[in-house]
Amino acid sequence: MVKTAIADESYLTYLKSLCKPDTCTVGLILGQPSTGKDFIIHLARTPLGQCDTAAKKSITPVKPVKHINEVSESVVADHAKHATRMLPGGMFVLGIFVVSEEDIFSPVDSKLVAILNQISKQLSMNSFVYGNPSNCEKLVLNLCTTTQTYTCKSYESSTFKPAEIKFQPKIATKWLQLECKYELDQVFTILEKDIGWPLRRYMTNILESINKNLHNAVFIIDGEIKDNDEYLESVGKKRKLARSKTGYHENTDSKALSVTILSPCKAPDSNTDPEITDCGSKIRLTGHVASKVWLHPKATIGTASEAIVQDIVRSLAARLEMHWDSLIEEEHGSPEDTNSIHEPPRRVLVTLPSSKITLSDYLFPGEGPQESQISLQELLDITLTADSEIKDIEGQADLNEMYMEEVESADDVLPKLPTDTNKFMYIVGLGVAFLVLIISLMVHYFRSNS
Amino acid sequence: MANTLKISEAVINKLSTINFTYSGCLHGIFYKNSLLVLGLHVETDEKDEIINSLPTEVDICGVIDINSEENNVKVDDILRKVDITDNPIYISFNSSLENSISAYFIVNDQLKSANFEIVKQANIYSEFVHVRLRASLPIYTELNIDAIKEAFLTLRKQFTSGQVAFNFQKSKVYLVGHDLENRLIGLSGDPTVGELCDESYVTNEGQINQRKRKSGQNIQQQVIEVYMFKKSTRDFPVEGTTLHAPVVHVDKKTFQSLQLWVEVDALSMVHVDSKVVNLYDIIVESSCRNLRLQQNAFFKFFTDCIEEQGKISNLKIYHFYPESCGHFVTKAYPKNFADIDLEEERSLLHKQLLLPVNRPIFRKSNVFLFRSDIQIGGPLINPHEGLIHTGNENEVVIVRGKYLYYHYCQNKMDDNGWGCAYRSLQTLASWFLLQGYTCRPVPTFDEIQKCLVDIGDKSNSFIGSKQWIGSTEVTFVLNSLLGITSKIIYVSSGEELATKGPDLINHFKTQGTPIMIGGGVLAHTILGVDYNRKTGDIQFLVLDPHYTGPEDVEIIQKKGWCGWKGMNFWDKGSYYNMCLPQAPTCI
Questions:
Q1: Domain ranges of chain A
Q2: Cβ separation A279–B230 shorter than 8 A
Q3: Where is the UFSP1/2/DUB catalytic domain (chain B) (predicted)?
Q4: Topology (CATH) of A3-168
Q5: What is the reported pTM?
Q6: Over the stretch B137-150, which tens digit does the pLDDT of each residue have?
Q7: Across the strands, what pairs with B320?
Q8: What ipTM was predicted for this assembly?
Q9: Alpha-carbon gap, residue B554 to B536, rounded angstroms
């Protein structure tokens, strides 16, 4: 069977707009794989030059690439990594497109193979990002500017097979939306012997446990629990039927199905005897991950649940990666004995112009929609018109409040040990009191003078 | 408010045996405008919260004075002791006045005389089912008393926060909340608890056969197994908090941490007509009771260990169903404590619940066997239950409590032709295990043979052989492995057994243990006797270890492998030895 994918016609127009003489453009194909056909949701050309979203540097213009040979595979792979972070669970980098003067398939350009392999390698680096879908096939779309025709192949284990991409006007894919708010409120203890590890290593273990828990979970979708091989479409059928009988019509396809995740309360099979250990520190996770995934109508309950898991874990892994990337060297280990609060960037949602599907972006504390506009432009080649298209769905934590709480809770547990923070608060408190005193004296002085 | 008062037969029976003066509290359950008194406890000098040991929905519903001479009842005192606010009851009982029971509802601080109806145990358990919640919850905390208390409190909060869901019988039925629109998933309509127990509602492969099988309990306890799930997603924001994106708090300090798995195993008692959706709050309450029970036990047993770095062990929940108590009693015992370490604990319970002090009731091996605890394919429990006996107006006494049916060819071992006395011995040993006299597992053939060699009764070559043993060897093994002494009764012929009626009646009345009988080449187990003192007619309830078939109680009863036998069952030509194990007096 020939691998097929469908895409909106507007993306063919997009590809054609990239046809320029003496230029070769490479980009990513983003979408959702399925057993029948793949659903392409977006095409985004790879920015020339170094893309560094974490630091949000503007791109220095580089002279255009003339031939695929000049394309750096690591740049494309890096682009794939950054783009994957922005995709909801169940969506992947499906492959690449190449707009070039020559036909890259006859003969197959060795650079093309190098790029594809580098992408797969890069995406498998952090398994929690869920970069590669379960089948490793990658699509390659070549638009030859000289003949103005496009060819498509699928690449798997060093061989190219024929494939087909259909550009359709106004594809009526009825995407089903699922959403939930995944709560994090867990404490992890760090053994005294592991105290020297960088924070990143602890967090990898924590992600591992979250990932494992999610894989054992039971998913309630819109109030129903169904078998994994049933179709997602079947959720709510009965109720919809009942509604239509009573003459009540609702535009159901625009409404997201809410997901409740239930984790079993089971002890591990291994030894569950009480353990007393010497611990070096505690890591506490708070807050929530807002998750929203989109699935094609023939997706099964199993696929949908998997997409939710991927979305939550990918989103956490992505923001942590971005957080580590933004830290300076010393902050990684933080060997000194101070408590700290790490605030990774938060998730915002951006609606794709061609469909209702939302992609994610991550904003660091203090960043606003402008920053998001830049990264969207850069990574996904999307130009947003207004700030309102970016939805802040998670909310920024109030760190000041948290520091205060931390101090209070420290007080509860260790009433006799004043911490540095405590002293600090004390001094700040005294300072503020003193300031108030001076101001009131001045007010008093000026008033009595006047 | 309750309109009618019902009292369990168990309570009436218990009261009739009491000659001392006590004051105590009544355990009761409300349903359908009735208050049903299930049991009671009396006040002792040692204080122990008994409420956490009761199934949820069973509450302290009133006060009882037993053989009290005082006539002045203080309503305020009563109200202070009870948990319920709507019309608690007061019962006064006096054994000297022909066991008279006077019952009163307290209405507006006044005693108002109440009529009551006595209900049989069997009727209670056809109207009520038990819901058993299980969950394993981790505690990670600093190793100090305050932090551990806080951790237990956090666990309780987890239940009351609404962030939990319950799964019934490992089916696809989930109860996810008490105020949500779709709170019951997997069942349509608004079913009752009784309907949930019905096979057609919850289809669960493999459980159907099991249910038909007699589980061997005197009273068929219907139990709904519930497993807890934690909601990892939040449907509605918590009031007073603002949601925010994930934040990582790193708290640098060195401390000793305690990691503990708390195994919640909580019972609630509910009427079959209650709605399944109403179970949510009941199950939550049962888990809180269970956690309080465990917290109290934890600090009772391990406070010293926390301070002195001693060995902390897990707690395990034990549900007991003492027959004369009328309801379940739940205790949390440390896994590493032997029965001897817990004697004080048990002694208090015996006193509080006015239970006999001559036999174990709350030892670990007295634990109630729920259907899900019973090993499938293992030896049957009490296969004589359900036998129809047509002994006419004779005196019938049978074995007390539970035993396992051991017979030929079990555990893939072919002992056909030589192992019958070993099997009978195993049945005897299982009785002592299940009655809590010992925690020693039922001895294997190897252990039996080794024991006989060790005490010098047999030579080394006996181990691994297929040699028979007789009632003397059974006596030796019971004595050296379980510390049980036995009486031996000898008869020179099968016919002479007829004269032993009074002895056997007396044995089952006072000891209640199964008897091993050996004669000729055969060994059997006698489980009961039916004796007519006037005519001398006698029948024996015999358990035959020579059965080689599957563990199917229907075949066993139909083909007479367990059944009532007349005198003709015994061989007139051979002599018989009976080993009558004596139950020690202990708790």
A1: 3-168, 176-266+276-365+393-401, 407-449
A2: no
A3: 395-579
A4: Cytidine Deaminase; domain 2 (3.40.140)
A5: 0.85
A6: 999 888 999 999 99
A7: B329
A8: 0.83
A9: 31
